[in-house]
Amino acid sequence: MRLLAPLLLSLAASVHSAEPNETLAAAEALVRYAASSHPLLFEKSDVCISIDGEENLQPLLDRLKDIHLRIVSCGGKTIVTRLPISKPAPQPDGTFLVSYGYFIDCENCATQGKAMSAVMSHDGAGWHVLHEYVGPNF
Question: Which of 35, 81, 100, 136 sees the fewest Cβ atoms within 10 Å?
Answer without folding.
Answer: 136
